[in-house]
Amino acid sequence: MHPDTRKYNMALERGDRAICSRLAKEIDLHLKGGENRVWHAHPVWFLDGNPIVGYSKLKDCVRLLFWSGQSFGEEGLTREGSFKAAEVRYTDVRQIRIGDLKRWLAKARRIQWDYKNIVRRKGRLVRIPGR
After folding, report:
1. How far apart are CA 1 and CA 123, in angstroms?
2. Which helix (H) or strand (E) holds 92?
3. Which of 14, 35, 111, 122 is the most buried (most CB within 10 A)?
4. Residue 130: what pLDDT?
């Protein structure tokens, strides 16, 4: 886990810290080769510079966000925003279903939209082929 991610987690209250620490552990374990860093004030994992998954503390929960999650075809993920992102929200560490998380992370590796170049493409998302 990146030191900045650890610092982010440690600044949270105990219940939220447990959620975030578990998420970070599982993401590190199941998204091999992912680069983790704090980006826009919360922990995010990247593959080849493209944001894949991250989490953030909201007022009443912890949100786990998959940048390309709307394309996964998975129950348990809710649309977020106007692009391709999807999320799940947790209020207790016991709500994290490791089987679902592993499956979503496998899909996150295979199904990617090119957020890295969205500004260069003037807001147009393109699916990364061959993943």
Report:
1. 31
2. none
3. 111
4. 65
In the numeric block, the tokens 């503390």 are attached to 57
Total of domains in the chain: 1
What pLDDT is recorded for position 131?
A: 56
Low-confidence ranges of the chain (pLDDT < 50): none
In this prediction, residue 124 carries a pLDDT of 73
Q: Which range marks the domain in which residue 43 is found? A: 3-110
Other beta carbons within 10 angstroms of residue 109's beta carbon come to 17
Tokens of 63: 């949100």
| CATH number for the domain that contains residue 23 | 3.90.1150.200
25: tokens are 């552990």
Q: Are 108 and 53 in contact (CB under 8 A)?
A: yes
Furthest CA-CA distance within the chain: 41
pLDDT of residue 95: 98
pTM score = 0.91
CA atoms within 13 A on the CB side of 90: 24
Residue-level pLDDT at 27? 98
Residue 24's closest CA among 61, 54, 57, 49?
54
